Amino acid sequence: MLRKMNYTLLLVIGGSLGILPAMAQRLPNRFPFPNAAGLLETYNTRNEPIDLNGPFFQALGTNGRSCGSCHRPGQGWSISADEVRIRFDLTQGRDPIFRTNDGSTCDHDIDTSTVQARRKAYRLLLKRGLIRIALTVPDKAEFNVVSVVNPYGCDDTQTLSVYRRPLPATNLRFLSTVMWDGRESSAQTGTQKITYSTNPGDLLADLAHQALDAVSGHAQGSTPLTAQQQQEIVDFETALVTAQAYDYRAGALDGAGAAGGPMPIARQTMPAFFIGINDPLGGNPKGTPFTPVVFNLFDAWANKPWVDRDTWERRQDRRASILRGQTLFNSKPITVTGVGGLNDDLNLPSMQVTCGTCHDSSNVGNHSLSVPLNIGVSDPDSPLGVNYLPVITLQNKTTYEIKRTTDPGRALITGQWKDIGKVKGPILRGLASRAPYFHNGSAKSLGDVLDFYNARFNIGFTAQEKEDLIAFLDAL
Ligand code: HEC
Ligand code: HEC
Questions:
Q1: Is 215 near ligand 1, meaning CB less than 6 Å away?
Q2: Which among 132, 254, 262, 311 could disulfide-bond with 43, CB atoms 3.0 to 4.6 Å apart, if both were Cys?
Q3: Could you tell me if 394 and 301 are in contact, meaning their C-beta atoms sit under 8 angstroms apart?
């Protein structure tokens, strides 16, 4: 174990410096990466090592970046703010992730001449793991942009700058929407909506398109990817499944009959998974009724006692806590009000739901249909505090109503007033490796995520419930 850990450190540091030792040009399958709660593993379902030389890790544009600059195996194929800070320190802010096209707070009038200046220019990336996304307001939008108050410049009202977390480039076969705002799976952008009858062809086409956009955008590519490069990237990323595999206190997450870790996810793809599975609002194409029991990974731990002699008492406590967290996720009643895409669409001002109503896809936790929601994470008065973000004021062209937001979300794709602030519910696996959370990095920890829900929906979590839910989320 100890030797494995040292090797991991070497890889993490070596990978950051771009001087991976020859043996690490390929990452052994299921290589364990440490995080604060335990070890994260990625299983390549092609059952071969993860090739760190393939197109996903090549600088295919002009600024030195690869997909791997922002989608790192050790950070759940996203980035964590902690790891970005280490990368900054090791390279004095010169690693290719630090580029002014979208890594800095704005793309013009930015001083990057000294380490100090770079620390300032990249402060949202360093503190929150955020990338600047510039999106043009659709021609026929139902609203005008009245003003943009952006503390970093970039206050254009036609092309809006929003700041978002890289989504994990793993477990992709379960996606019902590509990107936070679904812009790579929407008719409006010439990409394909993901549906039961067209899946997975729709998803694969969307991901190929997404790779093209990522190279021309993030990597400032001057020549488009070849069809073969696109194909290789999509083949590579869709073969990956990732999950927490080991918890320092509970032990192996697939131990004593439990089903944590990446292997059970690999067994769960088609036909066990399909678009619309377990949808709570009648969207399941097979008509099976919704069950709030979305996760059952740790059910086996209900059967005590476990037989690991020397450490069993310590493990028992932690396993019991993870199991209680799973039960809370599956059953804790939450009264939701004012959620765009839910309360308004159903015309129900107040609804009693559970975590799984929105995170309905079994043992994965995203929404199994494309259902963008506004739970309030982008509101300027979000309980988590988002004053590090711009405030964008929009006015409805017909009713003259005013809305203020830090990210219009889906509305920048559809142009629809009712879509302001809506984003997708992301996959909830490999969380422990990729803080901060929410699309704008406003939750620095899983505790912050729960504090948000607690404040937003008046849930009244006890300290014990919060601890158990964190233990569970850390084990995903
Ligand atoms: C500079 C950082 C950066 C680079 C480089 C980058 N990405 Fe991303 N990626 C992001 C961000 C940020 C998002 C989310 C943006 C949004 O939703 O608005 C994202 C989203 C994605 C998603 C969507 C996942 C989902 O759940 O919807 C995929 C897939 C992806 N990237 C793959 C790639 C590939 C392939 C490459 C290389 C060709 C790449 N990325 C390069 C930052 C980056
Ligand atoms: C009303 C729908 C809804 C409910 C109920 C809900 N969520 Fe979410 N959840 C979302 C949406 C939408 C997002 C994405 C929000 C964003 O990033 O702006 C999200 C994001 C998250 C994230 C962050 C994931 C990431 O990668 O950043 C976690 C963790 C999470 N939810 C856990 C939970 C837990 C635990 C519960 C129950 C206590 C819960 N959610 C209840 C809709 C919901």
A1: yes
A2: 262
A3: no
* Parent domain of 285: 2-80+165-377+423-474
Instruction: Give a yes or no: residue 382 inside a domain.
Output: no
Give 130 Cα–ligand 1 centroid separation in angstroms: 12
Could you report the per-residue pLDDT of 276-321, keeping only the tens digit for each? 999 999 999 999 999 999 999 999 999 876 565 556 677 889 999 9
Q: Residue 318 is encoded by which pair of tokens?
A: 């932690």
402 DSSP β-pair partners: 395
Q: How far is the CA of 230 from the centre of ligand 2 (A)?
A: 31
> Is the separation of the CB atoms in 186 and 193 below 8 Å?
yes
Distances (CA, A) of 390 to 30, 120, 395, 406: 40, 17, 16, 6
Number of domains the chain is built from: 1
Residue 157 inside a domain? The answer is no
Task: With CA atoms as reference, report the closest residue to 340 among 456, 244, 235.
Answer: 456
Do the domain assignments include residue 190? Answer: yes
- Mean pLDDT score of the chain: 93
- pTM (predicted TM-score): 0.95
Low-confidence ranges of the chain (pLDDT < 70): 1-24, 269-271, 305-312
Is 334 touching ligand 2 by the criterion CB < 6 Å?
yes
Q: Torsion-angle region of residue 446: left (phi > 0), alpha (psi -120 to 50) or beta?
A: alpha
Q: Which residue of 40, 348, 438 sits with most ligand 2 atoms within 8 Å of its CB, as the best mutation to test the pocket?
A: 438
In a domain, 101, yes or no: no
